[in-house]
Write a structure and sequence with these properties.
It contains 15 helices and four strands. It is mainly alpha-helical. It has a single domain, classed as ABC transporter involved in vitamin B12 uptake, BtuC, CATH 1.10.3470. A two-stranded antiparallel sheet has the order 1-2. Strands 3-4 form a two-stranded antiparallel ribbon. One of its GO terms (biological process) is amino acid transport. InterPro entries: ABC_transp_permease (IPR001851), BCAA_transport_permease (IPR052157).
Length: about 350
């Protein structure tokens, strides 16, 4: 039982990242009909927003500390963050410690701006082009962004820790009535799952209960009719591209303590996120979320030692095997609209 619960938790953790990225991908495909292979790069840029803010908060100047000496007996030079001068050492240290959560506020306007610029500057020219053209140009854009990140931040991973309050693990065993210390799970991974659920609920609520969202959903169903009503649906779709970029970026921001950012992390998630979208159903937002969590749980159970010993390498291919099975039996995906991908 403890192994079962632990694998469910691992699956929900992985599924949170898959679902968030796939949700943004589906928003773009559902509104604009664009296959965006640069979406993984948006996830990566979100992670590096957290890295950038962390570096900005730790900018410092050098002072001479007369109370401390080096091995030669000379007064020691120490680096003091500017935040200590502005807010005091205690509050300044707390702000630096909470750099990752604060990066949410930092990343939202940046990622929306990047999304709008990307859509207006490049994607709009490929609306009526074949999907192959869209894939090539967005994949090329992803490579360019990846190399820019590599140039400015280097090729190595950049540790970006969670706040000290969330370093450690939670004892699930004691909570669910199993022996204590049997099911230990990191606090930040739980936070990431809860954050993902909050973002997903926010996106669905925005689309379902706001006038803007209702118009967008109508435009997704029948773009021409909505345009004939005098509504500038293109502008709304541009904003939705920005929202989709922000969703991917926020997924990256909160993922940094789990997996230290590096320049190729976007590519690592890109293929998997497209598999999730295909399994869930192209253009289906609920399908993308459902498939993200289902595939995350499947991948988690496939990583069990007993399963790997029985079928070596199954943990590396289980997601793709499921995708093949879905495409063969239900080409439109689990929750895709009838006729989509079935021609």
């Amino acid at each position: 039982m403890d192994q079962f619960i632990l694998q469910i938790l691992n699956g929900l953790d992985k599924g949170s990242a898959y679902a968030l990225i796939a949700l943004g991908l589906t928003l773009i495909f559902g509104t604009l009909g664009v296959v965006n292979f640069a979406h993984g790069a948006l996830f990566m840029m979100g992670a590096f927003c957290a890295v950038t803010l962390s570096r900005l908060l730790t900018l410092s100047h050098t002072i001479v500390d007369e109370t401390r000496t080096d091995f030669l007996g000379n007064p020691l030079k120490v680096e003091v963050p500017y935040l200590y001068d502005i807010f005091g050492e205690s509050l300044g240290a707390s702000i630096i410690d909470w750099a990752v959560p604060l990066s949410i506020l930092f990343a939202i306007p940046i990622m929306i701006g990047i999304g709008v610029i990307m859509e207006r500057g490049l994607i709009k020219h490929f609306y009526n082009r074949p999907h192959a053209d869209q894939i090539l140009v967005t994949f090329g854009l992803a490579i360019v962004v990846q190399e820019i990140i590599k140039y400015y931040f280097g090729a190595n991973q950049i540790p970006t820790p969670a706040p000290e309050a969330f370093i450690g693990s939670f004892d699930f065993g004691a909570v669910v009535g199993i022996e204590a210390n049997k099911i230990i799970y990191p606090y930040w991974r739980i936070i990431y799952f809860l954050f993902a659920m909050l973002v997903i609920a926010g996106v669905f609520a925005f689309l379902q209960f706001t006038t803007f969202g209702m118009v967008v959903r109508a435009g997704m169903a029948d773009r021409e009719t909505v345009g004939l009503l005098g509504i500038n649906i293109d502008r709304r779709f541009t904003i939705m591209f920005g929202v989709a970029a922000a969703v991917a970026g926020l997924a990256g921001v909160m993922y940094t303590p789990i997996n230290p950012p590096n320049y190729h992390m976007g590519m690592d998630f890109l293929v998997i996120s497209f598999v999730v979208v295909v399994v869930g159903g192209m253009g289906s937002l609920p399908g993308a979320v459902l498939a993200g969590f289902l595939l995350g749980i499947l991948e988690s159970f496939a990583s069990l030692q007993a399963v790997i010993e029985a079928v070596p390498g199954i943990n590396q291919i289980i997601i793709y095997l499921v995708a093949i099975l879905i495409l063969l039996t239900r080409p439109r995906g689990l929750m895709g609209r009838k006729g989509v991908m079935e021609d």
